[in-house]
Amino acid sequence: MADSPHAWWRRQSLRFRLTVVAVAVLASALALSASVLLSVLDRALIGTVDDSLRQQAQTIRVHADAGTLTIPITTHDGTIVQVLDASGRITHVTYGADRMVPLLDARARARTLRQGRATFLDGRPYAIPGPLRVVVLRADRGQTVVAARPVGEISTSLRTAGRVLLVGTPLLIVLLAAASWLIIGRTLRPITALRRGASEITHTARSRRLPVPESRDEVHQLAVTLNGMLARLEEAEQRQRALVSDAAHELRSPLASIRLQLEVALGHPEGQEWPETAEGVLEDAMRLSRLAEDLLALARLDERGGVPARREPVHLDEVVRQTADRYGEARLTVCEPVVVRGDALDLSRVLTNLVDNAVRHTTSKVEVALTADGVLTVADDGPGIPAQDRERVFNRFTRLDSGRSRDEGGAGLGLAIVRETVRAHGGGVRLEDASPGLRVVVRLPVAE
Ligand SMILES: Nc1ncnc2c1ncn2[C@@H]1O[C@H](COP(=O)(O)OP(=O)(O)O)[C@@H](O)[C@H]1O
Ligand SMILES: [Mg+2]
Predict the structure, then answer these.
(1) Residues 109-115: what's their mean pLDDT?
(2) pLDDT score of 215
(3) Residue 357 Cα to ligand 2 middle (Å)
(4) Does residue 95 carry a pLDDT above 50?
């Protein structure tokens, strides 16, 4: 099937296309400059001849006017001169010039005079090879000065120059094509290396980087940018893998515990306290369901990529009051009316997670406060969190507790959910020392 030249052209390699375009542009530029050169050269050479010819004719005319013409007329550069009287008869000539036949007949003389410019004349009828340049001037008493000079040499040298250009230009173009092909190939080599590197990555699926060329050019920047992207992708993938393995790990112990309790109960059905077993199983089931809920919340946060699910006006003071009511230990110190834009359910989860932690760690009291500028604080007087761990605890599946409080706590997702939700709402979370205890400060932008 024949396809269009356009499609064919687009199928060619970049190297080929760039070379062809570069060579085409260079070739037309060279051809143009060669023709300009030849025509300028031609005009300049003929112009020089004309100037000197006119000067000669001028001098002869002065002599003719003064009646001081010699026989023969002498010129020093081979100019042929004929001086004619009013009747068109030749009166004076240079040595060797025709004394009988004028170079130009009366009509041609009149035309050349009228034009005031030098003209070409075929020299062959006068036994002169090649063309002649002729100037006609009028002198006193009806005399006419006709001066001519052969310009065959100029045509010959122009022809020679033309021939040199005709051979030289294509040669130069071939050289340029070869040089362009090589240079473009060299320029594109890093791109080929990039492509090869990329295909190896896809094939091996291992932690790999693209080859970065040494030159500080666009390809270098591209390689660096792509490597940055690969690093981020790899990081995300690693995080994902870690999350899956952490989640599986967290699932294992309650599931094992359920299984053990059921196996024991079924193994010795006689004298079995079934309600006790059911309570144990229920506790583990609750842990599982909390974990599933937290994972789901995180997955939703990831999915939305840092923006809240909704942007409705939420009366934060009401959410705070409801949450504090649910926990007997929590005391509300300040609660000023605050409206923020966002998702009421997500914001109430933030509060629940924080109060939950505080209640779990406190020794005596938990204080919750909300001020009109959108600052929410939850403080307890428990062991607090050492300064070096205050950033780490926000990571997923990070727990510092040991012993009893660990059994009560979750999987270490609570603070991660808090921080990501608050950030999605355009706010920030900070952990402070309440000496004793921990104070969590959440700042949310207040709606207009
Ligand atoms: N109020 C607090 N006082 C002391 N430690 C805390 C408090 N809140 C959180 N922590 C520590 O931060 C860790 C992470 O908290 P969180 O993300 O809510 O996970 P979880 O509650 O599931 O353990 C907890 O395991 C605990 O060690
Ligand atoms: Mg928690």
Answers:
(1) 90
(2) 83
(3) 5
(4) yes
Ligand 1: does its nearest atom lie under 6 Å from the Cβ of 102? Answer: no
User: What is the number of structural domains in the chain?
Assistant: 2
* Per-residue pLDDT at 2: 65
- Domain membership of residue 51 (yes or no) is no
Domain that holds residue 397: 312-443
Sheet holding 80-84, edge to edge: 90-93, 80-84, 144-150, 131-138, 119-122
CATH code for the domain in which residue 421 is found: 3.30.565.10
Q: How far apart are CA 440 and CA 354, in angstroms?
A: 8
Cα-to-centroid distance, 437 and ligand 1 (Å): 12
441, 430 contact by CB (below 8 A): yes
What are the structure tokens assigned to 294, written together?
């937290």
Give residue 207's pLDDT band: very low, low, confident or very high (50, 70, 90): low
Ligand 1 atom nearest the C-alpha of 357 is 8
Look at residue 167 in the predicted model and tell me its pLDDT. Answer: 93
CA of 412 to the centre of ligand 1 (A): 7
Mutation probe of ligand 1 site: the residue of 392, 415, 418, 420 with most atoms within 8 A of C-beta: 415
- Whether residue 230 is contained in a domain is answered as yes
The structure tokens 């603070």 sit at 415
Q: Which among 239, 269, 304 is the end of a domain?
A: 304
From ligand 2's centre to the CA of 410, what distance in Å? 6
Q: In angstroms, rounded to a whole number, what is the distance separating the alpha carbons of residues 332 and 327?
A: 11
Give dist(CA 165, CA 207) in Å, integer: 58
Is ligand 1 within 6 A of the CB of residue 420? no
Question: Which residue lies with its CA nearest to atom 20 of ligand 1?
Answer: 412
Is 344 in the same domain as 399?
Answer: yes
The string of DSSP letters for 261-306 reads HHHHHHHS-TT--HHHHHHHHHHHHHHHHHHHHHHHHHHHHHHHTS
**Quick check: CB of 418 below 6 Å from ligand 1?**
no
- Closest ligand (CA of 416): 1
